[in-house]
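User: My instructor asked us to take a sequence, write out its structure as tokens, and then describe one feature of it. I'm not sure where to start. Here is the sequence I was given:
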Amino acid sequence: MGQQEDKYLKEISSPSELRRVLSFEVPRERVEEEIEQIIKDIRKELALPGFRKGKAPLELVRARFSETAKKEAFEKLIPLAYQRALERENLDPVLPGEISGMEYGSEGPLRFQIAIELYPRVVVKDYKGVKVTKEVKDVEDGDIEAEVENLRQRFATFEKMEKEAEPGDVVIIDYWRVGSDGKPIRGSKVSNYPVEIGSGSVVKDFNDALVGMKAGEEKMVEVLYPDDFPNEDLRGKRANFGIELKAVGRRIVPEANQEFAKMFGAESMEDLRSKIGESLEKSNEQEAQAKAKRQIMNTIVTESEFDVPDGAVELALQSLMKSYREEYGLDQEVDEEKLKEIKERLRPLAINIVKEQFIIVEIARREGIKVKDDDINLIARSIAERAGLSVDEVMKRARESDEIGRWRQDIIRQKVLDFLYEHAEAEE
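Assistant: Let's start with the prediction itself. The structure tokens for your sequence are:
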């Protein structure tokens, strides 16, 4: 990159501690020179009627492709100027810059601005020796019996019946949200969903609509969400659904006997209960550790005060809003004011998510915590075993989709949490 690009940056302003706005001017002669070269390159590959390839008159090519050439020139010159400015000013943006204010009239230079956000100066206080209470839940006989029942229900079989659905039956349905225009809302369909009529697993209007339906029938139903519905944004609201009933039947739950125990590698129900107890103890220990690690990180995030980039917070908010929409079935009909209210409610969580990301990177840097090749290979082998693929194929796909970057983030996060837990003052 030449010295010429050094002169394109004209000014840097600082609207906030982490935000910078870079103002550029690219001389007109440099822009026109680039446009002309692109025109000539287009001409070399162009075959117009009446002319041999590469022999079309330059003026004709210029008349037809001037806008295309101008666009390509901008796409080349702007990144050149931007990258050179970052290098010269020693700037390290968190996210790609935002281009605005582009001007290129009949005379004068190409003018534009690029806004960037910088990495914050991460202040992490006292991340070693954080006091935390680790609470391991005792395994009770009732817990073991509940798990036995869960296993019985999980391995229940479905027996179809040619009849109208009634309370106590299990039905298999497809359902989808319907918009105010009467059409299905894109992406809202759920397929092969089992419902036990009368079990309370779905809201009353939805449950009642299933009674009397037969396999192959479709129905529209208006649902009124009750005032105690878990999602407060849907309480008292109405929504329309389409339902297709696929099958009516009943669940056959296996008996808790020796034959059942042998399905899980146990000699008897007593042996199975013993194995379940050991598994629950291990699970409770893991759950207690995970909760303690979360508590430690929350303490560190709360006590570490530093600004975070607005752009990174906005990205976190977008991800949270997407998850919120999917979980609670919010669609395009939700008014802007309601969406704004939900977004502002989620903003503190988004800020903490971003703070945590920076804190993890900073602690990893200070403590020399790194991702090793073996860590990546372990994940690849695990995925390969589950998917029935070779490790090489999994790695190839991961590289193509940039999945390895996400693996690295997850590994670093887990290693930092393990480090914090090991150096915490845990009380049981």
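For the description part of your assignment, you could build on this observation: Residues 157-252 form a domain with the Chitinase A; domain 3 fold (CATH 3.10.50.40). Try explaining in your own words what that tells you about the chain.
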